[in-house]
Amino acid sequence: MHFIYRMTETNQDNQETNLDEAIDNLSHEDLCEITQSSIKRLIASDHLLSDLPVDVTPEEVLAQIAVIQGQSITVTVLRYSETPLNVVIPQQNTTVLDLKKAIKRSFLLKQQRQKSKTKISWKYIWKTFWLQNTANGKVLKNDKELVSNYDVINRTELRFVKRLSKSKTLINSPERSCCTEKYPWFEQITRQEQLTLSCNNLGLNSKANLNISQLNHILVDHNHKLLYCYVPKVACTNWKRVMMVLTGQSNATNLVSIPADVAHADTNALRLSQLPKKEIKRILKEYTLFLIARNPFERLLSAYRNKFSDNLPSSKYFQSRYGRQIIKKYRATPTTDDLDSGANVSFSEFISFILNEGHYETLLEDAKTILDMVGAPTMVFPVTRGGHTKDRLREYFQQLSIFTIQHLLKMASIKIPEQKIILCGEYGVGKSSLFRRFANNTFVTATDRKSTLGLDQIKKTYSAHGKNVQLQLWDTGGMERVASITSSYYKFAEAAILVFALDNPATFHILSQHLLDIVTYAENAKIFLCGNKSDLVSETEESSISDLDIESFCEQCHSLISATYKTSCKTGEGVEEMFSDIASHLIKSNQSKMELQSIEEHGFKISEEPEEIEESCLC
C-alpha cells in the first residue's frame, strides 16, 4: 500500500492548488449539476430537512424552512391503506379552500415523482368527500372558513369522510372514516403507487427501451381511450366481451351471450403491438391503461378446476396434452386408462407439475370504477359462473403439505437481490455518461449537457448463471469537482468501477487515490477498472495509456482489480457488456458466499433423524 499513499500525498497538493481555477472554468450546466447534487447531500445530512425527497423542489425547501421558523404548519392527510400525505400550509389566514389546493399540489407532485398516470377527478373528490379533523371530529364543510376555526394546528391529522345527504347524519366513528372504508378512487391510487414502486424496484422504469413484443396482451379501445392488459384466468374472457362492446365489435346487451371463442378471436380486438411505434408511444402517454390482478393461489385453483375438472372442449385439450404427462410423472401407480385419458389429475399432482416445470377479488367494483373513469356507457359486467373459487381454497389446499405451500409462496414472490455499485474517478472521465448509458442508453455531448435531473442512482436487472441481480448504480453528480466525496457514498457498496479516460494519462495516474478511498470506506467491494472514451483513441495510433500500463497498475494493486474494460459512452461500445459482466461477477460471488455459509453452518454437523410431522389443517 506504500505506492498508494505516496501517490495520494503528491496528488492532494496539486488538487488544492488547481481547485479555484477549476471552479472558474466550470460551465453553467456543470455548476447547476454540482449545485443540485450538493443540495441533495446537504438535505440528507440535515436532521431538520432529511424528511424531504432527494429530488426536492425549491418551493418544498422554503416551505420546510417556514415550518421550522413557525410561519407555516404541516398537516397530515390520512389515505386508505397507503402512506399519509404531508401538506404544508401557512399558519395564518389559510381557508379550507386553500388547504384543498395545497393537498392537490402535494398529491400531483407525488404522482409526478412516481411517474403515475392515474387520472384523478378533484371535482369528484371534493363533491363526494369532506375533510375531518381526527382529533375532535370536526368536519371542514365551509371552503371560505379559516382552518383554525376547526382547530387545525401543526401536526393535525385529517381524513376523508363521505358526504351524506341532508336527510342523513354524518357518523364520526373511525369505522366510517376513509382510513377503514374502501372508496374506489382512493383504492385505485393506492394500487397505482404500489405498482409503480414494484416496477421501480425491479428496474422496470418508463425509460427502458420499448419492446413491441411485450405489448401483444394490451387491447386498444380508441373510442374511450382505454387500454386493457389481459392476464389469463383473471376474468379476461369477460373483459374481452366488455372491450368488444366498447369498440363497437358487438351490440349485445347481455354480454354473457357473446361466445368465449368469439371474445378471444384475434379479429375482434386491436392489439397495441399492431400499431406503429410512434403511435404506441403517444397512446401509452394519453390513454388509461388497466389490468386486473388476482390472488395467486385462487388463480392456481381456478386454472386447475377449469382445465382439469370441467368437461369443456378446452378442458379435454389440456387433459390430453398435459394431464397424461402429469399423471405419468407424478403418480406412483397410474392405470392404463389414466395414462390414456389424463382426465383425473389430482390437485396435488397439478401443483407438483407447476412447482417443477414451469385483484380479482373486487372485480365488479373495479369494473365500474374503470368504466366510469373513461366515460363508458352503462353496462352490467358479465358473471358467467358461480365458481366460488375463493370459498373452496381451504378444501383444495388442505390436500397439500405445509412445505409445498411454502414453496408456492416463494415461487409467487419476486425478490431480486440488489447490489450497490459506485462510480469513482476524476471529474470529466465520463462517469455521468456511463450513468446515462446505464439508465436509458443515451449520450449527451459536452455542449448540450444539462443537469442530471436529480438522478443520483438508478436500478436495472440483469440475468446470469440462471439467477437475477439488480444493479443499483450510483453517480457522484460532479460533486468531486468542488468537494470531497463523503464516506456515505461508499457505504454498503458491493462493487466499485474505477473510471479513467483513455485519452488523458493524468486521470489514469491519479487512480491510486480513488482506490485508497474504496479500500478504506468500502473494503468488501469488488473493484473493476474501466478505460472510457475509447472512441477518442485513433486506431492507427497507440493509446497514450497502453495495455501494459493497465496490467502494471493491476499488478501493483495486488489482485484488487477483478476485471478491466474499455468503453465508449459516445458510441455505446462495451458499456452494456461491462455491466453484464459485472453482474455475472457479483452473482458468482454471492453464490460462493452462500456455499461457504452453508458449509460453515452444516458442513461438520451430524444431522438427527427428522421428526415426522403430522398432517394438519391450515387454521
From TrEMBL:
Listed Pfam families = Ras, Sulfotransfer_2, Ubiquitin_4
The record gives the membrane topology as: Single-pass type II membrane protein
What does the UniProt keyword field contain?
A: Carbohydrate metabolism, Glycoprotein, Golgi apparatus, Membrane, Signal-anchor, Transferase, Transmembrane, Transmembrane helix
UniProt-listed Enzyme Commission number(s): 2.8.2.-
As for subcellular location, the record says: Golgi apparatus membrane
Q: Where is the SNRNP25 ubiquitin-like domain?
A: 73-164
CDD domains per the UniProt record, alphabetical: Rab, Ubl_SNRNP25
Record's InterPro entries?
Carb_sulfotrans_8-10, P-loop_NTPase, Small_GTP-bd, Small_GTPase, SNRNP25_ubiquitin, Sulfotransferase, Ubiquitin-like_domsf
User: What's an example GO BP annotation here?
Assistant: carbohydrate biosynthetic process
Protein name according to UniProt? Carbohydrate sulfotransferase
Could you tell me which species this protein originates from? Sitophilus oryzae (Rice weevil)
